[in-house]
Design goal:
Layout: H1 16-23, H2 34-41, H3 45-54, H4 60-73, H5 77-90, H6 95-107, H7 111-124, H8 129-141, H9 145-160, H10 167-184, H11 188-204, H12 209-221, H13 225-238, H14 243-255, H15 259-272, H16 277-289, H17 293-306, H18 311-325, H19 335-346, H20 351-363, H21 367-380, H22 387-397, H23 401-414, H24 419-432, E1 435-438, E2 442-446, H25 452-474, E3 482-487, H26 495-504, E4 513-515, E5 519-523, H27 534-550, H28 557-568, H29 574-585, H30 595-600, H31 605-626, H32 630-639, H33 644-652, H34 656-672, H35 685-694, H36 699-711, H37 715-728, H38 733-745, H39 749-759, H40 767-779, H41 783-796, H42 802-814, H43 817-830, H44 835-847, H45 851-862, H46 869-881, H47 885-898, H48 903-915, H49 919-932, H50 937-946
Parallel strand pairs: 2-3, 3-5
Antiparallel strand pairs: 1-2, 4-5
Helix pairs in contact: 1-12, 2-3, 3-4, 4-5, 5-6, 6-7, 6-8, 7-8, 8-9, 9-10, 10-11, 10-12, 11-12, 12-13, 13-14, 14-15, 14-16, 15-16, 16-17, 16-18, 17-18, 18-19, 18-20, 20-21, 21-22, 22-23, 23-24, 24-26, 25-27, 27-28, 28-31, 29-31, 29-34, 32-33, 35-36, 36-37, 36-38, 37-38, 38-39, 38-40, ...
C-alpha cells in the first residue's frame, strides 16, 4: 500500500517528470496486436507503425494511438498530433484519444489546449490516468500548489482502491507517487516504487522498458549511480532505440562531469528523437559547463520551439542571458529581466525556474548570483527539496562554512544520497582531521603526514613575503586570519578530487587553486603529476582574498584578475604577447564591457588568455597614465558600488570612451614593440587564394600561399607557388623556406642549405627560414654558426622563447656554461612553472661558486617542487658557503627528512651544527651517522674533536 499520511510539503525537482511524457505514450492495449506492441516496446518503430496501420479499419482508435506513439518516439510531433486530431474527429467520445492529445499539448507548452482536453477526458472517464497526470502538472506549472498536491495524491487513493492495473496505469501511478513522496518527504515511498511497484510492472510485461527507466531515474535522483546504471542498461537491452534512456545516461555522465560521454549519449538520443526536449536541455548543460554560453543559447532557442514555457529551459536561458548581456534583473528592458517577469507572471511559485537559473549560474561559477537565485527558489517554493543543499554548496565556495554546514546537514537528512552534499560533508570531515599551522595572518590546513614541509614553506612565504607586500599595495588588511586549505590524497581520492569537491562538490575542475573571497583551496603540488609554482598560486589567490573582501565582492572579474596577475611580478609570457598581437591586428580585443566574458565563457582558449593579458595591461596602463594611486582609487569606487563607466569617470576624470581609446593606444604601442608581430598573417586560406589570383605578381602572396599548401601536405602546388614567388623575388625568404622543406623531404640537405643561405636577410630575417637554417647548422655540429643564427633570431623575435631554447641547446652541446647560464635565466623568467630549468641553473651556480645565485635558484625551485631532497641539500650547501649556518642546518634537516639514506648530508649537517655553535646537536647528529655507518672516518674524527677523551 502507498502511504498517503505524511505532510504535504515537497519538491518539484525531479528527473522522472522530464522523461514521463514520451515514455508515457503507452496506453492500455487489450485489443491491439501483441506483435505491434512488442515491436514498439523493443524500438522497432517503423515496423510497429506498419502493423498499427493494418489495424486502421477494424480498430481505428488503437491504430491511431499506436501510430502516434511511433511518430512521437522518433520526434515527429506534428505528425503525431495530426494522427490524433484526425482520429478524434470520428471518435469524439474516446477518452484515451483525448488524454493523449492533452499529453502532447502539455509537452509542447500549449497549456490552455491541454486543460480543455483534460477537462473533456475526465468528463468522459474520471479515472483516466494520463488526464489525471496532466491535470496535476497543469496545476503545478500554474502555481496552484495545493491543487497539484491533491491531484498527485489522487493516484495514491486510486492505487489503494483498486487491484487490477495495466503496465501503463502503474507507470502513471509511479510518477505521481514519486512526486507526492518528494513533496511530503516520504522517502519510504521510493523504496516501495523501486522494490515493488516497478517490478510489478515488469511482471505484467517484461518488455515494458519505461519501468526500468523510471526506476533508474529514482536511483539517479538519489545519486545511486550503480543501481541506476543497471536499470538503464536493462532498459536499453529491451529497447536500444529508447531516446529517453540515452538522454538519462547523458545525465549520469554530467553528474560525473564526463562531458564527452554525455555528448555521445545525447548524440544517440537526438539521432533517434531530434525533438526530445530534455536532451536539448542536457546539451545546454554540457555547453554551460564548458562556458560555451553562446552555443548553449542556440540550443535553448531550439528547445523553446519545442516548448516555449518550460521552466527548466527558460531558467537555463535566463542564466545564459545574464552572463552574456551582463545585465541584472533590475534593468527592466534586459533580456533576463523580461524573461523572469514573463515566467513569474505565469507562475508565482516558479521554484523550478529559479532552481534552473541558479543551477546554471552555479555551473558557470557565478556563485553570488547562484546563491541569490537558490534563495529566490526557496522563497517562492518552500517545498523545494534540494534548494537548501545547493545553497549550502555555494556558501561553502563563498567561505561561509558555518551556515553551509547547517544547510548541508539538513539537506543530507532529507536526501542522504546527494553526491555533492555528501562530498562536501566528507570534505568537512577531512578538514577536521587536518593539521593546522597558524601565523599572525593565516590559518593553513593540510595533511600533516603528506604536506608538512609544503605547509611550513607556504606559511613562511605567505607571512613574510606575500602579506606585507599585498596589503600595503592594496591598502587593506582582511579581518581575521585568511584560511588556506591544501588538499592531498586521502580515502582513495586524489588531492585534486578533494580540492574540486571543496570548491564545487564535483570530482574535477580544471585549475589547481581557487578563491571565492574568504578562503583559498589549492591542490598539493605533491599530489600532481605536472609541476606548478605553488608560491605563484598562493600569491595570486591572496590578492583575490584581499580585494574581494575589500570591495565587499563588488570588484569586477577583470579587475581582480588583473591585479592578481600584476602582483605576481612576472614577465608577460611570450604566448600572451603572441595572442595580444594577433588580436590587435584582427581588431578583436576585449574592452571593459566585454572582458569579463573572456573569463567566464571564453569561446576559445585564446579568449581566456587574452582576458588575463588585457586585464593586467589595464592595470599597467592605469598606473602609467593616471599615477601610482590609480589602483586604490578604482578599488574605492567599486567599494562604493560604482559601475565601471562611472568609476572610471570618478577616478580619472575621463569618460569610458576616452579611457578605452587611450588604453588601445597603449596596447598598440606594446604590440608595435614586438618585432615578430608584423610577420603574422591574418588571412584565411580562401582569402589568400583569392588575393593571389587577383594579384599574381605579388611575391609575398605567392609565398604565403605556397606555405599554406605546404602545411596542407600539397607539395606540388606548394612548389609551384614558391617558384612563382622566387621568380618575382629571387631572395624571398618564405619561398626559400618552402623550397628548402621540399628539398629536405627528398633528402637533399645541400640544396636546402644553399637556397636558405642565399635568401637569408640578416637585418629582417624570416623566422621559419632562419630557424630551419640554424637547425641544420646545429645538426651538422657547426656550433658557432648555429649560435650566430639563433642569436639573430632571439634579437629579431624576442617574443618567442624557442630561440633561447635553441641557444641553450647550442651552449649545452658546446660546453659554454657561462652563456648557458645567461640563456637559461632568460628562459626561467618566461616560464615560471619550469622546475628543470631552475634545477640546472642551481647546478651551474654551485659549479661557478655563485652561492647567492644558488640560493635564489634553489628557492625558486622549491617554490615548484618542495619535496626535492637534492635541492634542499644544494640550498644547504650554498647557505653554508655563505656562512648562514642556522638556515643551512634547517635545509639539511629537510633534505635528510626526505632522503634519510643520505649519510653524506648527515655529516654536512654535523659540520654546520659545529659552525653554528650547536655542539650537543652536532654530537647527536654524528653519533646517529656512526650508528648507521660505523666506519665513517670523517665523522669519527669530527666527533673525537668534539668529545676528546
Amino acid at each position: 500500500m502507498i502511504n498517503p499520511t505524511v505532510g504535504r510539503s515537497g519538491v518539484i525537482v525531479l528527473f522522472s517528470l522530464a522523461f514521463s511524457v514520451p515514455a508515457g505514450v503507452f496506453a492500455a492495449e487489450e485489443n491491439v496486436s501483441d506483435e505491434a506492441r512488442r515491436l514498439f516496446l523493443t524500438g522497432r518503430y517503423a515496423e510497429a507503425a506498419e502493423v498499427y496501420g493494418q489495424l486502421a479499419n477494424d480498430r481505428p482508435s488503437d491504430a491511431a494511438l499506436g501510430l502516434a506513439r511511433c511518430h512521437w518516439e522518433t520526434g515527429k510531433l506534428d505528425e503525431a498530433e495530426e494522427v490524433l486530431r484526425v482520429a478524434a474527429k470520428s471518435q469524439a467520445d474516446d477518452a484515451d484519444l483525448a488524454a493523449h492529445r492533452a499529453l502532447l499539448a502539455f509537452a509542447r507548452g500549449q497549456h490552455d489546449t491541454a486543460q480543455k482536453l483534460v477537462d473533456k477526458t475526465i468528463t468522459l472517464d474520471a479515472a483516466q490516468p494520463i488526464a489525471r497526470w496532466v491535470n496535476a502538472e497543469l496545476h503545478r506549472v500554474s502555481g496552484r500548489m495545493k491543487e497539484a498536491n491533491d491531484a498527485y495524491e489522487w493516484f495514491i487513493d486510486y492505487y489503494n482502491g483498486n487491484d487490477k492495473f495495466t503496465p501503463e496505469d502503474l507507470h502513471w501511478i509511479g510518477l505521481a507517487a514519486a512526486q507526492y513522496a518528494r513533496w511530503s518527504r516520504n522517502s519510504g515511498q521510493f523504496r516501495f516504487l523501486v522494490n515493488t511497484l516497478y517490478p510489478d510492472v515488469l511482471e505484467l510485461d517484461e518488455n515494458y522498458w519505461p519501468a526500468r527507466l523510471e526506476s533508474g531515474l529514482l536511483f539517479l535522483e538519489k545519486y545511486n549511480q550503480r543501481d541506476a546504471k543497471v536499470d538503464l542498461d536493462a532498459a536499453l537491452t529491451i529497447n536500444p532505440n529508447a531516446a529517453e534512456v540515452h538522454a538519462v545516461r547523458a545525465m549520469l555522465a554530467v553528474q560525473d562531469f564526463n562531458i564527452r560521454t554525455a555528448n555521445e549519449s545525447l548524440d544517440e538520443a537526438l539521432k533517434i528523437n531530434p525533438r526530445l526536449l530534455v536532451a536539448h536541455q542536457l546539451r545546454a548543460d554540457c555547453l554551460l559547463a564548458e562556458l560555451r554560453v553562446a552555443d548553449a543559447i542556440r540550443i535553448l532557442d531550439e528547445a523553446r520551439k519545442l516548448n516555449a514555457v518550460d521552466e527548466e529551459t527558460l531558467g537555463r536561458l535566463a542564466a545564459a542571458y545574464a552572463v552574456i548581456d551582463g545585465a541584472q534583473e533590475t534593468v527592466a528592458d534586459s533580456r533576463v529581466a523580461k524573461l523572469i517577469a514573463e515566467v513569474v507572471q505565469r507562475n508565482e511559485h516558479c521554484g523550478r525556474f529559479f532552481m534552473a537559473l541558479a543551477g546554471s549560474m552555479d555551473r558557470m561559477r557565478r556563485y553570488p548570483a547562484a546563491a541569490k537565485y537558490y534563495r529566490e527558489a526557496q522563497r517562492r517554493m518552500p517545498q523545494l527539496m534540494y534548494a537548501q543543499g545547493q545553497l549550502g554548496l555555494v556558501l561553502m565556495r563563498l567561505g561561509d562554512e558555518a551556515e553551509a554546514r547547517k544547510l548541508l546537514d539538513k539537506s543530507f537528512e532529507i536526501d542522504a544520497f546527494n553526491v555533492r552534499v555528501k562530498n562536501m560533508l566528507e570534505v568537512l570531515d577531512i578538514l577536521e582531521n587536518y593539521a593546522v599551522i597558524e601565523t599572525d595572518h593565516f590559518k593553513i590546513k593540510f595533511d600533516g603526514e603528506r604536506d608538512e614541509i609544503l605547509a611550513e614553506y607556504a606559511a613562511r612565504y605567505l607571512e613574510d613575503e606575500v602579506y606585507p607586500e599585498i596589503v600595503q599595495s592594496l591598502g587593506y588588511e582582511p579581518p581575521g586570519k585568511s584560511l588556506f586549505e591544501i588538499f592531498s590524497r586521502a580515502n582513495n581520492t586524489s588531492g585534486h578530487g578533494w580540492f574540486s569537491a571543496r570548491m564545487v562538490g564535483l570530482p574535477f575542475i580544471g585549475t589547481v587553486g581557487a578563491c571565492a573571497g574568504r578562503m583559498v583551496a589549492m591542490v598539493s603540488p605533491n599530489d600532481m603529476r605536472r609541476s606548478f609554482s605553488w608560491a605563484r598560486v598562493l600569491r595570486h589567490e591572496f590578492v583575490h582574498v584581499v580585494n574581494l573582501q575589500q570591495t565587499d565582492f563588488r570588484i569586477p572579474h577583470w579587475y581582480t584578475e588583473g591585479l592578481a596577475v600584476w602582483h605576481e611580478g612576472l614577465a608577460r609570457p611570450p604566448g600572451w604577447n603572441e595572442v595580444l598581437a594577433r588580436r590587435v591586428r584582427a581588431d578583436t580585443l576585449f574592452d571593459l564591457d566585454t572582458i569579463n566574458l573572456g573569463f567566464i565563457r571564453p569561446k576559445q582558449q585564446e579568449d581566456w588568455t587574452l582576458a588575463y593579458c588585457q586585464a593586467e595591461l589595464y592595470v599597467e596602463f592605469m598606473l602609467e597614465r593616471f599615477g601610482d594611486d590609480a589602483i586604490s582609487k578604482l578599488l574605492a569606487a567599486y567599494t562604493d558600488n560604482f559601475g565601471t563607466e562611472d568609476a572610471v569617470k570618478r577616478c580619472f576624470g575621463v569618460g569610458q570612451e576616452e579611457f578605452e581609446k587611450a588604453y588601445r593606444e597603449y596596447v598598440d604601442k606594446i604590440v608595435d614593440g614586438l618585432p615578430d608581430a608584423a610577420q603574422q598573417s591574418t588571412r584565411s586560406f580562401a582569402e589568400l587564394r583569392k588575393a593571389a589570383e587577383q594579384d599574381p605578381k605579388d611575391a609575398g602572396l605567392q609565398a604565403e600561399l605556397a606555405y599554406q599548401y605546404l602545411q596542407r601536405g600539397e607539395a606540388p602546388t606548394a612548389r609551384k607557388h614558391a617558384m612563382a614567388a622566387r621568380q618575382l623575388d629571387e631572395k624571398h625568404q618564405l619561398a626559400a623556406y618552402v623550397l628548402a622543406r621540399l628539398y629536405l623531404s627528398i633528402g637533399d640537405t645541400t640544396k636546402a642549405l644553399e637556397i636558405l643561405n642565399r635568401s637569408l636577410d640578416g637585418e629582417t630575417p624570416q623566422k621559419n627560414a632562419l630557424a630551419l637554417l640554424a637547425g641544420l647548422r646545429l645538426k651538422a655540429g657547426d656550433y658557432a654558426e648555429a649560435e650566430r643564427l639563433y642569436r639573430l633570431g632571439a634579437e629579431a623575435f624576442p617574443n618567442s622563447p624557442n630561440w633561447l631554447k635553441s641557444l641553450s641547446s647550442v651552449y649545452l652541446k658546446s660546453g659554454d656554461k657561462q652563456k648557458l647560464t645567461a640563456s637559461l635565466a632568460k628562459l626561467a623568467k618566461a616560464d615560471y612553472d619550469n622546475v628543470i630549468i631552475r634545477k640546472k641553473l642551481l647546478e651551474l651556480a654551485i659549479e661557478a661558486e655563485d652561492f647567492d645565485a644558488a640560493v635564489r635558484w634553489a628557492n625558486q625551485t622549491l617554490h615548484i617542487d618542495v619535496m626535492d631532497a637534492d635541492v634542499h641539500a644544494s640550498l644547504a650547501l650554498a647557505l653554508a658557503r655563505l656562512k648562514k649556518h642556522a638556515r643551512a642546518i634547517g635545509a639539511y634537516e629537510t633534505a635528510i627528512h626526505l632522503s634519510p639514506e643520505r649519510d653524506d648530508w648527515r655529516y654536512s649537517l654535523g659540520e654546520q651544527c659545529v659552525q653554528a655553535g650547536e655542539k650537543e646537536k652536532a654530537v647527536a647528529v654524528l653519533e646517529e651517522l656512526l650508528s648507521r655507518e660505523p666506519e665513517h672516518a670523517e665523522a669519527k674524527k669530527l666527533l673525537e674533536e668534539l668529545s676528546p677523551k
